[in-house]
Amino acid sequence: MKRAVFPGSFDPFTIGHFAIVQRGLALFDEIIIGVGVNSSKKSMFTPQERLDMICQAFVDEPRVVVKTYDCLTIDFAREEQAGFILRGLRTVADFEYERSIADANRALSGIETLTLFTEERYGYVSSSVIRDLYKYGKDIQTFLPPNVTLPKR
Ligand code: ADP
């Protein structure tokens, strides 16, 4: 069984994240979406809210499992018996960041990271843009996966 973890903050989970998982399902038998619970990082949505919104997005997809985790991503991947980490790439800035983490993770654990380039139409979609729009009461539904609604703030 080829299993990958897709780790992230997902604050909130966007249509860009959704598209990466959908494409990842063509490459892996199972994808475990790991909502990182990093207590030093201030988030808009609680871990449970983030987990719930991702579950809504994949309600009809049994090959996607959603969990929260509070440890190193490589330790989470090992616990889940996943041989791969899946990530998405938008920009050159993403590239530098992703490469250094991927190299460190491979050196420490042997776990390979597979990165997919975003589709052009999702290139500007980010959790931080959605948080800003949401804070000021703008409609953000087009940036969310189908079936997902955000909790009231
Ligand atoms: P992190 O805090 O770990 O960067 P994010 O929730 O911001 O977590 O993102 C998780 C992963 O999804 C990262 O690999 C990020 O580059 C990728 N990602 C974020 N937005 C998009 C997008 N619009 N298209 C493709 N990949 C994306």
What is the CATH domain class?
A: Alpha Beta
Tell me the β content: 15-25%
Sum up the overall morphology in one term: globular
The oligomeric state is single chain
CATH H-level superfamily: HUPs
Instruction: Indicate the mean pLDDT.
Output: 96
Q: Which cofactors or ions or other ligands sit in this model?
A: adenosine-5'-diphosphate
CATH topology term: Rossmann fold
Strand arrangement, largest sheet?
3-2-1-4-5
Quickly count the domains: 1
- Distance separating the two termini: 40 Å
Structural class: alpha/beta
Please give a quick description of this structure.
By secondary structure, the chain is α/β, with parallel strands linked by helices.
Provide structural commentary.
With 153 residues, this protein is of the alpha/beta class. The chain has one domain: HUPs (Rossmann fold, 3-Layer(aba) Sandwich). The protein has five helices and five strands, in the order E-H-E-H-E-H-E-H-E-H. The longest helix has 18 residues.
